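Q: What structure does this chain adopt?
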Amino acid sequence: MALYLIGDVQGCDGAFERLLEKIDFSPSRDHLVLLGDLVNRGPDSLAVLRRVRAMGGSAQSLLGNHDLHLLGVAHGDRKMGRKDTLARVLLAPDRAELLEWLRRQHMALHRRIGEGDDLLMVHAGVVPQWTVADTLERAGELESVLRAPDYGDFLRVMYGNEPARWDDGLAGEARLRVIVNALTRMRFCSADGSMDFDTKDAASEPPPGYMAWFDVPGRKTAEATVAFGHWSTLGWKSRPDLISTDTGCVWGGKLSAVRIGASLEERELIQVKCPQAQKPG
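A:
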């Protein structure tokens, strides 16, 4: 059985289909983890949702910021943006089933690879104070809220940049907001873990006083390998503690899959070129 990680599809179903063909994905033989942002900005979010849902247990997906945005719009708590391409999902006859499936996806996943290699999978990042176990526990808190009957109460207070730093004493909506911001929005943070949400540049161009979240000294997930998407200006990056998979498909880049072998050192990058669905900026 092969394990494949795929970065941000963002509604680019044609590229997604071609990538699955290129890796010769078999639902009976292989397992696929999509690292968030299945939808939005690309031309066919509806087809992507239907395709992944139809894969059943052979595929798992993380929730990214665009996926949560879709849930917020569908619930009436967010407005559609001018670049959003979610209308077909909202008008689909199977809308209710797709949205119910989506809100039951994961905020973080963990796999043990080979003889003790830890693979932690998130959409955006992990605050430096969290261990792998902490990350999974905090993700579980958020998953429980999103899967509850009254999840709309959280969607109404989900957005906002404050608090910008994790504290173990946080509670209620403030605690959940920090968790969702770290797991689905973060790129840069300071040495004390304060997050910046304004800068979307490459890791080499951090705002003053900040650095890429994965370069913070003393980060407690550094002994694991963290796989993530979200950061198209970072692009493909592979090092012992890191796999970055968002290679800008929706902007005319590539859609990337990473095949994980018997150990986390065994990584194969497979890509397909993508037509530009939107222009950056």
